[in-house]
Amino acid sequence: MRDFRPVVAGLLTVGLLTTTLAGCGTAAAPGPVTDAPAATQTAAAGQPDSTSAQPDQRPGRPAPTRRLDVGTRTLDLNRGDRPLPVTVWYPVGGDGPYPVVLFSHGLGGKPADYRTVLSEWAAAGFVVAAPTYPFTSQGGSGGNALDVLNQPADASHVLDELLALDGRVGDEFAGRLDVESVAAAGHSAGGVTTVGLFTAARDDRLDAGVVLAGSALGVGTAFSGAAAPQLFIHGELDEVVSYASGKAAYDRVPWPKAMLSLPDGDHGQSLLRPGNPAYDVVLGTSTDFLRWTLYGDDAARQRLADDPPAGVAVFDDQL
Questions:
Q1: Is residue 4 part of a domain?
Q2: What are the C-alpha distances in Å from 226 to residues 190, 207, 229, 260?
Q3: Cβ atoms of 206 and 53 closer than 8 Å
């Protein structure tokens, strides 16, 4: 397991982080998923051995061409005294192995808040693992916003445990996880966690990142390691994590990158709730980005180059 030391010192004050992220997980309220049969299970695992690759190095295995059925599974994990229950949305059937996406929730949120988006990613051919963080989740101990800075280490530990299941004889994920095609994504405080996985607590297994309404607050912008394409998505009317702070982090990314800006977008509802044009653009753009970076899907890359609907979004393409 990686030894990521605390990254708090000198980066921010308690008041600034708490004020900026307060309530960041409460804006999104996705509706129920009606077409994702689920079977809940419990598992634990050890540490994997994996490498990373870039989109132009991806194997020739094509991305799924149809929407897959989706199942769910629960992994009962811990990092020391930090409980990390993980909800996994995964494709049922089809021709795996499937790339892995680690998703981090916002402050005061929980994985189920994002089930609509995450199940759609799974239906597109990804195994999506979403930990519940111990001190920033809904009902978590103390609601400590500063604990966001410990979450990149939690996220890497979850990847250790999850990816090891690919080699565990008899496990339902054995041979079903593409351990060399891995991305991180997150919303708000989870976006900060995601940025941290490419900066202060770089996880070299990660091939791409998706930052939804997040910033680099507390984790810095010292992006390091092999190039990993990044997609930032941010509402310009975000009342919790300012658009300017997200854009500032995006500007510092030294790798292939893109930013989807939503002129009328807020912190969560317009990004993550079905039933509005912004949600459709966010879901389509993020899915195509993952298909391109983790499958090498050229058709998905071409769709990213198409202009989004006028007035709904602006796409800065530096991929």
A1: no
A2: 22, 8, 10, 23
A3: no
Which range of residues forms the domain containing residue 287? 14-318
Spatial distance between the Cα atoms of 99 and 260, rounded to a whole number of angstroms: 23
d(CA 277, CA 280): 5
Give the position of tokens 């308690």: 14
Residue 130 lies inside a defined structural domain of this protein: yes
Is residue 5 one of the residues assigned to a domain? Answer: no
CATH number for the domain that contains residue 264: 3.40.50.1820
Cα gap 295→126, rounded to integer Å:
10
Q: Which of 147, 129, 98 is nearest to 291 (CA)?
A: 98
**Distance spanning both ends of the chain, measured CA to CA:** 32
d(CA 288, CA 124): 9
How many CB atoms within 10 Å of residue 248? 14
Q: Is residue 3, in this structure, part of any structural domain at all? A: no
Instruction: List, for residues 88-124, the tens digit of each pLDDT value.
Output: 999 998 888 999 999 999 999 999 999 999 999 999 9
Pairing mode of beta strands 177-187, 98-104: parallel
Is residue 125 within 8 Å of residue 94, measured between CB atoms? yes
Instruction: Give ∠ CA 287-69-106 in degrees, rounded to 5.
Output: 50
- Check residue 219 and give left, alpha or beta (phi > 0: left; psi -120 to 50: alpha): alpha
Q: Total structural domains in the chain?
A: 1
- Greater pLDDT, 61 or 279: 279
pTM: 0.86
* Closest CA relative to residue 295, chosen from 12, 1, 61: 61
